[in-house]
Amino acid sequence: MQNTPKFVFDKMMETDYFSQWLGIQLLEISEGKCVLEMTVRKEMLNGFAILHGGVTFAFADSAFAFASNAYNKLSVSLTASMTYSKPAKEGDTIVATAIELSLTNKTATYDVVITNKNTGETVALFRGTVFRTSRLVIGNNSY
Amino acid sequence: MQNTPKFVFDKMMETDYFSQWLGIQLLEISEGKCVLEMTVRKEMLNGFAILHGGVTFAFADSAFAFASNAYNKLSVSLTASMTYSKPAKEGDTIVATAIELSLTNKTATYDVVITNKNTGETVALFRGTVFRTSRLVIGNNSY
Amino acid sequence: MQNTPKFVFDKMMETDYFSQWLGIQLLEISEGKCVLEMTVRKEMLNGFAILHGGVTFAFADSAFAFASNAYNKLSVSLTASMTYSKPAKEGDTIVATAIELSLTNKTATYDVVITNKNTGETVALFRGTVFRTSRLVIGNNSY
Amino acid sequence: MQNTPKFVFDKMMETDYFSQWLGIQLLEISEGKCVLEMTVRKEMLNGFAILHGGVTFAFADSAFAFASNAYNKLSVSLTASMTYSKPAKEGDTIVATAIELSLTNKTATYDVVITNKNTGETVALFRGTVFRTSRLVIGNNSY
Fold this sequence. Notes:
The structure is a homotetramer.
Chain A: H1 5-14, H2 17-22, E1 25-30, E2 33-39, H3 53-69, E3 73-84, E4 93-103, E5 107-116, E6 122-136
């Protein structure tokens, strides 16, 4: 009863210092799905005055981690790929929507779309695959 | 004479606030090559007490951007992929080595290997492709 | 009037000997979209008696090429990634659906989903990016 | 004694009808490494009179499968990515060299470089990750 997706998310976030630094807000969480929101700050920009591609990726990667671990089955990232569309700028609010494409006992694959709430544009497309370990996120063998 | 790879790097870094936040140190820069170093801080960790995969990616992405823009030809990231090997921990010093795999007038591809100086392990493998615009990084049409 | 997506497709197929070998059938073609069908033959299997991953990829790659070239603007593949879900078997009919995720003057990105008509399962997920040259597929500078 | 990398390769090839169709020749096989050679035939071309990107991928994918299964531990492809450099043409002999980048009990990652023996150019760069099952390729639970 306790280890709901929301409870797992809260527990992970407690010590996820980088997601805290990103300033992410949870919009939706369920098994295999996660929607997050954040706002682009000056310290997230690269030398071309746009959101650093690595921060964009990190935001998608957080949504991917929360979606895949929401089953309370510890899942570790194996590979991820990123395709960039339109850059986001300081002050823009961006949304990451992670959905599950496939799920087996051992692996799962997710798509994360990053959209810009200010312009309606797609910022980037992320696709990642996890290895699902036999350990729990929260429980006897919790992290 | 002025727009050497090192000069372009310095100019990009001046306003690359996120690379500054990462605390990256330049070890080597030339056309198509860049080696960077940084140390993992607590605020870079995820909920499993290891370096957030997005920060790992961002570090590789910075090396990739500096290597590809060192020609002073403005290059924008199209796609990148990441494969994770061994997680890094707080206090570890990690090195990103970006090398050029192919180069045409319009596109170029780079590999970035992230290694852990403390353990000697490979942390992650990044591969990215840029579109090389007809604009300069520094010059009449500078950013 | 002449260089419609269907006309470009037919012209490309005339000398696309490998797509002919695959036995692909066109279900739908328009600018940025292509749907193809083919049936798995014995000579397409790997040593585990399932459809060779390379043939699965090639089928997706053909849909990707037809979708991106349907504008009659010669487009060359830069990168592609593949995620495997469920293997297809001899005799299965599979469908590749290519849709456009983003389009600029110089580049474009497509997703191709391969589904198995016999089982309803997703076989694999392909994502690819093209460089859009300034040449035509059919016309004065045709291939 | 019997299940050497070469023996596993031979056994896989016996029913790997698509690798047979490709006409691949084995140059080297060991645990985690495989080098193959093949010659581009007319039926492998796409509509632009160059080697179909899917055939290039399939050739890399075969080298990847042989390298990863050479331990006689059944390994299935999870994801792969491809970056294209220079096209190969009819009559060209191409070589695929698969090397292991990382290996754990459950997963492994390989790079495959495709080179053109006729021009010395790099044709394409492949990177793939397998899930290593607990089954044998050859033995009590053989395929």
